[in-house]
Amino acid sequence: MPQPPAAPDTRTVLDLGERALVERITAKLGSRPWVLVGPGDDAAVVTPEPRTADVLTTDALVDGVHFDLRLMSPEDVGHRALAVNLSDLAAMGARPRCALLSLVLPSSTTIEFVDRFLDGILRLAASEGVAVAGGNVTRSPGTLVIDVTAVGAVHPRRVLRRSGARAGDDVYVTGTLGDGATGLASLRRSREDAGARRAPVAEVRYRRPEARTRAGHLLSRNKAASACIDLSDGLGDGLRRLAEASGAGMTIDAGLLPVREEVRTWAALQSQSGASDARGWLELALDGGDDYELLFTASPRARGRLRGVQRLLGDLPITRIGQVTKDRGLRLLVDGDARPMPGGFEHFR
Ligand SMILES: [Mg+2]
Hints:
Bound molecules: magnesium ion
Strand order of the largest sheet: 8-10-7-11-9-12-13
Order of helices and strands: HHEEEHEHEEEHHHEHEHHEHEEE
Number of helices: 11
Helix content: 25-40%
CATH architecture of the largest domain: Alpha-Beta Complex
CATH topology of the largest domain: Phosphoribosyl-aminoimidazole Synthetase, Chain A, domain 2
Structural class: alpha+beta
């Protein structure tokens, strides 16, 4: 018989105390064969994967800046905290192996939140084969901060960098664009107006971004990409960074951008209804952010290898959206008309 769900634990981290909290968290963490010493000692000890280089990345989520608990669940926050790091590993062509988790918690944080947050992060860790090998809990005088460090492995000669794009290469993107921004806007709108039209697929894509781990690994293993980056701050930002690192330019055709029908329809309805913050589908795709797709370039000689990658990926689409140019600068083709690439999101704006 299925067990009834346990009642949520309404105690706070202050009630429980740091030691008991750490024990509670540690008891939930699984292990992996490559972790020699896991949580509970002074540091984790991990066996390196033969003939690979370690790939390390870290990313913090700050309550009120990177997530809003009125719009997403604690499980969503846990998922996101790991997914954004796995996305960076994927962009390097690395397979993820371990993660470290640092929680900076206000005393009023409930045990229920911690439990549900861990469920979110550990479910993703299990499905991606990642060991959460250690971490730390600290008291915060104010905001809740979640900091994750992730470690992956890649063959040293298969690293995907931002700097490898060359004139004549094609520009590609995985999945669809604009979902993250649309999902967030839809969640916000539905809080103001319960009857508002929703964008349900985009909302899930916002709450549970999927790191393109397999795509990154296959692009790297099959030497199919010349440069790669993951899209956290929108396509426009990704293009600028790739172009800058490679010392090249790019021309992108707006008509080729993979934007799902739900996003186009939702954006059109917002502007028809005269919403003050309405953005068109193109703006959502270019400047939206939170899509965590891979943006990469590939030389025309690699097209056969890229088709092989596409076959192995199955349902995840890879779409050609433009070309790398010798002259620097980013151009956007709209109905055959070339214009400079608009805008860009800045963290400190
Ligand atoms: Mg990145």
